[in-house]
Design a protein that fits this description.
Blueprint (H helix, E strand, L loop, with lengths): L9 H4 L8 E2 L3 H10 L3 E6 L4 H11 L2 H10 L1 E6 L4 H15 L6 E5 L5 E5 L13 H14 L1 H19 L10 H14 L16 H8 L4 H16 L13 E2 L7 E2 L2 E2 H18 L2 H17 L10 E2 L2 E2 L2 E2 L7 H8 L3 H7 L20 H7 L4 H19 L7 E2 L2 E2 H18 L2 H17 L1 E2 L2 E7 L2 E5 L2 H18 L2 H17 L33 H16 L2 H11 L3 H6 L5 H11 L3 E6 L6 H8 L7 E5 L4 H4 L16 E6 L2 E2 L6 H10 L1
Parallel strand pairs: 1-3, 2-3, 17-18
Antiparallel strand pairs: 2-4, 4-5, 6-7, 8-9, 9-12, 10-11, 13-15, 14-15, 15-16, 17-19, 19-20
Helix pairs in contact: 4-6, 8-24, 9-10, 9-11, 9-24, 11-12, 11-17, 13-14, 15-16, 17-18, 17-19, 18-19, 19-20, 19-21, 20-21, 21-22, 21-24, 25-27
Length: 675
């Protein structure tokens, strides 16, 4: 009996009609495996995963394959986005067994959850140098029945290995600027100076590395970041018609994407483009931000204010069909505008992708405009009109599937993106969207001081993970920075207290991915490495350092170092995997810098406009009136700060040394340039 029909995950619901007797991840499945003395087959994927769809069609929808699975295994289907804790543990096992990982993920384990076999996609028939899935099933069933001792010994050893991986011990490594310098040199050596990014194909947006590079004073670091951002913005990985970025590029030039769009990628990229805009005021960055957030507002936001998770790569059973064009289509509906559209977006009869075309921009708009003897403004106005026509034409197509579950951690990333973009661009509607999302999470996914990880159709489920608390805490700081509504900073303090109470590793330092009162898995995972998302320990460290400096809590900074110190050597040698931790380390090494605005929000708008033009990543900024004692009690650096001439006044302090207070934006700018 397939038990997935009552689930809320779109991925699990895609499999509810399979002839496989699927269980969700429940104790019932493990009890049944023990009672029937069968191994468990765990299949993990997500709704926007192309090869997950392929394996489902080939194997899980096939009666004969399902018969083998049902006869010899207890079968569990997991949405990796709904249960990242489960996914993390068993992905580590697959990587240890095979040297690689990915989705769909297939793991076979004992009734106690100890893995002894793992892999990713298995074809129905033997091809790609891989055995057929049916042969794998038959071999594993035979091993379980006839070589049980060998299987159990292997499972025990793998479980012990996973336990060692999760227990990174904090050593006495020195945390110094030398780590940051060596990391930067390593990144310079790995940088693709022609196309941007790091390494070859496939090429993923290096979210956390870009964050680190954008915060360095070394000019070459900013050049690497901007080269990467510009190449991605012009490439096919960016949806020039509807806004938003695909998951990654299958080539090294950012042309051909793996077409699914994930909320977390777009959230982080919006933040990176906003940071880059502070440095250069490049109008390309603003267009990308506006178009991407326009897509999120239009297609990825629920009526309640939550953000949906993903758009599928496939439509009508074909990857990318929704996004690609033929020359004939362009000629057919654009008329006299067709030549310009084809030239600008690299559209031809031969195509750039399997005989069809992925819109991309070969020549930067300023150079393209010069060739046409137009101003860049004139060109972009014409292109904007063309894009609108292409968008309307594309809207008549069958849309990719939407994964409409709402994840706390991913929502937090997008909340921060809207808040930061609204503040930096001076666009209040973005801030209002961020505010609405924070209210949604607080009202629907936060109960009795604890977060839930997933929400759909009025149901919040799965106990909150470290990523939920850390990302949401950081997002609330971004929202406070955009609004100076103290309720958001206060909630961030509450989340940090929960992290300390339920996630801290009292034995080895750092923070576990799951709470101390969460479901007990075979190990309690702990992650320091950036995946597409920031590592939970890095995000937690950044959150604690920031709040420590708001509230003068030195013990919180000490807690943060226990998440950073174990990775000191890894950050030196493999900085591309630790961009978030490098930022946390740099924050910790930076002298405390505070900016106190003594004013109301309305009175301080000119001063705030000046502050928002400056990149101040490691500065804590607060606003309050002298009589708001409840707020001042939480923020020691704000206390005993009078107004000058009864006007909005700003105090800038660094390393315990304060400049004279000012209430003129020009004077503030001069102070910020010097400090």
């Amino acid at each position: 009996m397939n038990r997935l029909a009552q689930e809320t995950s779109p991925y699990l619901l895609q499999h509810k009609d399979n002839p496989v007797d699927w269980f969700p991840w429940t104790q019932e499945a493990f009890d049944k495996a023990k009672a029937e003395d069968k191994p468990i087959l765990l299949s993990v994927g997500y709704s926007a995963c192309h090869w997950c769809h392929v394996m489902a069609h080939e194997s899980f929808e096939d009666e004969a394959t399902a018969g083998l699975m049902n006869a010899f295994f207890i079968n569990i289907k997991v949405d990796r986005e709904e249960r990242p804790d489960v996914d993390s543990i068993y992905m580590s096992a697959v990587q240890a067994m095979t040297g690689q990982g990915g989705w769909p993920m297939t793991v076979v384990m004992t009734p106690e959850g100890k893995p002894f076999f793992g892999g990713t996609y298995f074809p129905k028939l033997e091809r790609y140098g891989q055995p057929s899935f049916t042969r794998v099933l038959q071999s594993l069933a035979t091993a379980w029945q006839k070589r049980r001792e060998e299987v159990l010994e292997s499972a025990d050893k793998m479980t012990q290995y996973l336990g060692v991986l999760s227990q990174v011990v904090s050593d006495e490594a020195e945390l110094s600027k030398a780590i940051l310098e060596e990391a930067l040199h390593k990144l310079q050596a790995e940088f693709d100076s022609q196309h941007g990014g790091f390494g070859g194909a496939p090429k993923f947006p290096p979210h956390s590395v870009l964050k680190f590079l954008l915060r360095q004073k070394e000019p070459s670091a900013l050049l690497m970041a901007e080269k990467t951002l510009q190449k991605m913005a012009l490439g096919g990985i960016y949806d020039h018609i509807g806004g938003g970025f695909a998951r990654y590029s299958v080539d090294e030039i950012w042309l051909v994407p793996h077409f699914e769009k994930m909320l977390y990628d777009n959230a982080q990229l919006v933040q990176r483009y906003a940071e880059a805009y502070q440095h250069s005021q490049n109008p390309l960055y603003k267009r990308v931000i506006d178009e991407t957030l326009g897509w999120v507002s239009r297609e990825m936001t629920s009526p309640e204010g939550g953000f949906y998770s993903a758009l599928d790569a496939d439509s009508e059973g074909e990857e990318g069909k929704y996004y690609i064009w033929t020359e004939a289509e362009i000629d057919g509906f654009l008329g006299t505008d067709a030549p310009l559209a084809k030239s600008y977006f690299d559209i031809s009869g031969s195509g750039n992708f399997e005989g069809k075309n992925i819109p991309n921009v070969k020549l930067e708009p300023s150079l393209f405009a010069r060739q046409l003897e137009l101003s860049e403004t004139e060109l972009l106005e014409r292109i904007s009109a063309i894009k609108q026509q292409m968008f309307l034409a594309r809207e008549t197509r069958v849309r990719p599937g939407l994964d409409d579950k709402i994840l706390c951690s991913w929502n937090a990333l997008m909340l921060a993106a809207f808040a930061d973009a609204g503040r930096i661009l001076g666009h209040e509607p973005y801030i209002e969207i961020a505010r609405n999302n924070a209210r949604f999470i607080r009202s629907k996914m936060y109960t009795a001081g604890r977060l839930k990880h997933s929400y759909k159709e009025g149901v919040a489920k799965t106990q909150g993970l470290l990523e939920d608390y850390a990302y949401f805490g950081l997002a609330l700081i971004s929202l406070y920075r955009a609004t100076f509504e103290f309720e958001w900073l206060e909630l961030a303090f509450d989340l940090a207290e929960t992290i300390r109470a339920h996630f801290y590793d009292h034995k080895n330092g750092g923070f576990f991915s799951t709470a101390d009162d969460a479901e007990k898995l075979i190990i309690r995972p702990k992650n320091h490495f950036d995946s597409p998302n920031p590592s939970e320990n890095a995000a937690t460290a950044e959150l604690l350092i920031s709040l420590a400096r708001y509230a003068s809590k030195a013990d919180w900074e000490e807690l943060a170092t226990t998440a950073i110190r174990p990775m000191a050597e890894a950050m030196r040698k493999h900085p591309s995997g630790f961009g978030s931790l490098l930022c946390a380390l740099e924050f910790w090494l930076s002298p405390p810098k505070e900016i106190a605005l003594i004013s109301t929000y309305a009175e301080a708008k000119e001063l705030l406009s000046e502050l928002n033009q400056q990149a101040l990543p490691y500065t804590v900024i607060a606003l309050a009136e002298p009589h708001q004692q409840a707020i001042l009690n939480h923020l020691p650096f704000m206390q005993a700060r009078p107004k000058l001439a009864d006007k909005a006044t700003v105090y800038v302090c660094e390393g315990g040394v304060c400049q004279l207070p000012v209430n003129d934006p020009k004077a503030l700018r001069e102070i910020l340039v010097k400090t």
